[in-house]
Write a structure and sequence with these properties.
The complex is a heterodimer of chains A (about 350) and B (about 650).
Chain A lengths: L36 H15 L7 E5 L3 H4 L9 E4 L5 H11 L4 E7 H5 L3 H9 L4 E7 L2 E2 L5 E2 L22 H7 L4 E6 L3 H13 L3 E7 L15 H7 E3 L1 E6 L14 E5 L5 E6 L9 H13 L3 E8 L6 H5 L11 H4 L3 H11 L1
Chain B lengths: L8 H7 L1 H5 L6 H9 L3 H12 L2 H7 L4 H4 L2 H4 L6 H11 L18 E5 L3 H10 L5 E5 L8 H4 L8 H12 L4 E3 L7 H6 L4 E4 L5 E2 L15 E3 H9 L9 E5 L3 H12 L4 E5 L11 H9 L4 E2 L2 E9 L1 H7 L7 E2 L2 H9 L9 E14 L5 E5 L5 E4 L2 E4 L3 E2 L33 E3 L2 H4 L4 H19 L12 E6 L1 E3 L2 E2 L18 H4 L13 H8 L7 E5 L9 H5 L5 E4 L4 H7 L11 E4 L7 E5 L8 H5 L5 E9 L10 H10 L1
Parallel strand pairs in B: 1-2, 1-4, 2-3, 4-17, 6-15, 7-8, 7-15, 8-9
Antiparallel strand pairs in B: 5-16, 10-12, 11-14, 12-13, 12-14, 18-25, 19-20, 21-25, 22-24, 23-24
Helix pairs in contact in B: 3-4, 3-8, 3-21, 4-8, 4-25, 5-8, 8-21, 9-19, 13-14, 14-15
Classes of the chains: A alpha/beta (about 350), B alpha/beta (about 650).
Chain lengths: ~350, ~650
Amino acid sequence: MTYVRSTFRHPALPKNDLGYTVDYYEGSLSTLCAGCGHDSINAAIVEACWQMNIEPHKVAKLSGIGCSSKSPAYFLSNSHGFNSVHGRMPSVATGANLANRDLIYFGVSGDGDTASIGMGQFVHVVRRNLNMVYLVMNNGCYGLTKGQDSATADAGSKSKAGSVNLFEAIDLASLAIELGATFVGQSFSGDKDQLIPLMKAAMSHKGFAFLNVISPCVTFNNNAGSTKSYDYVREHVEITGTMDFVPMMREITANYEAGDVSDITMHDGSEIRLHKLQKDWDPTNRRSAMNAVQNAKDKSEILTGLLYIDESSQDLHELINTSDIALNSLPQSLLTPGSDALAKLNASLR
Amino acid sequence: MKPTNIQDPEYFHKVVDCQYACPAHTPVPEYIRLIAEGRYTEAYMINWDSNVFPGVLGRTCDRPCEPACRRGRIDEEPVAICRLKRVAADNRDDVIPYMPQGPFPPNGKKVALIGGGPASLTVARDLAPLGYEVHLFDEQKLGGGFMRSQIPAFRLPEHVLNDEVNYILRLGIHTQFEHYVESLKDVLEKDYDAVFVGTGAPRGRDLPDLPGRQEGDANIHIGINWLGSVAFEHTTNIGKRVIVLGGGNTAMDCCRTARRLGGEDVKVIVRSPFASMKASPWEKEDAQHEDIPIIDNHVPRSFVVATDEEWSVVSDQWLAGEPIPDEAKLRVDENPHSAIRNPQLRGMTFEKVEAVYDENGKRSLVPTGEPEVFFPADDVLIAVGQENSFPWIERTVGVDFDKWEMPVVDKTTFQSTNPRVFFGGDAAFGPENVITAVAHGHQAAVSIDLFCNGKNLLTERLHPMTNLISQKMGIHEWAYDSAVDEYDRLVVPQADKTVTLRDRKKEVELGFDPLAGYKEAERCLNCDVQTVFEAPKCIECDACVDICPTACITFTTDGDESDLRSRTKVPALNISQDIYVADGLKTGRVMVKDEDVCLHCGLCAERCPTAAWDMQKFWYNVTKAGEVKYNVVQITRNESAV
């Protein structure tokens, strides 16, 4: 048994602006199945954080239970992490975010953790517009318990054992748009060229950024007849448009033909440069985004890329007018003002 | 880009950097694995098959393999391949049972080998088991050639050399030692079917035009002749102050030998800058360790020779490393030296230079303009190169020579313009080293065998034997130790200087003990276990791309080679290393693997859900004459069967 990954790295690995090579963003060695889509998404997270020059200690990774929820162990070893109860990652994320608004909250969940046991928490965190990235590694099955159909398995999709799923799938992206998510993207684990810019934009977005990433279960749901297999997804992917994420203060170097390109400026001055491939689709218009997803579905296509973005939204902190300063940075006199202040407050409510 | 043809035996051969760099293409990783397993005899026999002198080479090889070693591109230092070979040699059991056993049924052919060095001995070993009657001529009383006369005993103990020479001589070689061949014509007139010339590059370069060279002759020696004279114990001492001229390995051997023969103040003085000296870095280190300063950028200008009377007047003005005082210079230069007045060598003068490089990188040594400096010496050893010399080959026997007085020899067949005469070793293309001589010997033996059987030397030459065998034993289990050990190269222990400097024959290096040998062997990356990719099986899940520690694998759209090299995960800028390109993927992309810093750790294959990647052991064996196999795998099988 040799399950050891050498710490030798390519001697010419480039450094980012912070002086780190990409291995500084890696995690411990994955114990997921060989060929699992989740590993590929983890690698994309590592690459995205490295490219964004994020200091790892400025990230909190959160998860629930499941194959997907194991994966925060496999990226960003130098970040904060919380592996919560099944389906309860949103409430932990909410609490952490309210206490310390200075971190990037990166939630990782699966289709079971989100669309079944965690559905109640999921819909509420969406409508509250919590400032976080919520990424679902969606493989349409319960991989950790040998591959039973999950709530996101498409009707008609065939399992490895040959049984056909009878029930309609929950379409998480549509649901998120419907519930008021302010950044919604969909992608495929096998397409890092799309996934990495999408992650970078999602991390820069202020508000709830939802990414539904189809991530084939190589062990239980990669068979012929499955709609979440590598082959099926590759054959049925339809993209909204290719995009570049241009961080704040960077010169735009990507070069597209005029007319096809639109720039979306984000709240911090970063830009998404979008090369649109879909007609009649406006990523800033919720109805247009909904239509695009529905139209693709009608054609048995999986629409990937950025689906919807609203850069004018107010996140939870703004909505409920919390402290501008993270609680751990507040002086004690403000954080615990004492019994006099409490008495005053109580008196004001009498 | 055109997909890589992995059927071409040379493709994977190039990936095994050490083996590819070795002139004899010894299967290095294979024997290193055997050393790690403690199977020293087998490791020795793999070496013996390939390079004939494992014990000698494990101590003295120029190690072209080590600068090539992939580990050196990832870690600070390469694997100590050379000294691992010595571990196999030091710890082997009796190997004679695994060697060909004579007497061999004669095939009626007779060959003469002129010179008893590594090239000739290799030819002898390859041809004797085929039934050739082999006659070996050498002017010395023992075989080994320059391995005996030029490599000092403190680097190569005599018994090591004797053992390995005798392994060959016991195959029934007819030796004619202390027999200097004076005429190739005479040899050709005898009934030899073929003649092999392995007479080396026996002539040391001199500096005949330097002033004082003749007058000081008694104390000025040609390095290689002097080393030979020490080896055969004609010379047993040297003056206290010695200057060695030259910057190659012979200079290093001269200075270290001088330290053992009574030299107390021994200096190496060399024209070129220290960094570009020809000597191997480790030999320079060893010399410096024995308190021998290496003074670079000094060009010799004259030998200072003076009688006792003359010298007594001026000697206090001639100081080591100092400019020559003007009046002192005059006094000595004006005095004619006469043999009657018994002038003595007093030292040498040097001009300081600096290396200047033109836009093409060509170096010239330009005088700095400083005054000449003086260094005292009782003896001077000249080790400024050696050259070929064939006074015994008549220019009428059909062996053509070029304008540099070198024989015209075919680079593949080693045949000269006289079809019966073959050359190898330093005699063929000028001074190289032992391992190159062995490689020549193998090829010359193949040619001689083809020639004696009336076959075409080029078209009927057999290709090297290659093989690829999967190492998969389980999901995370391979038939080789795939994990990469990350500690630094081990240092070979040396005997104490106070002991070694007293005894010329006391070996300086002690060699790795078996535990250190195991540890160093574990640093080997097993580059012969190849990453073999089958595109039709690949589902493009990226698992291999993500797991590869050294970012070797990229899936991307096709392009020409330079384009692909620029688009790999880390640009593949080391163009001496190939990129492995495979097409036939469902998305129409190509798989590009930069071989440069692949650790051969097998994680790509462990992570591959469809076994599109496999780790397969590549075996490459240079064809030897008559396809005689000293197959070690065979030995193991027989033993385990017992």
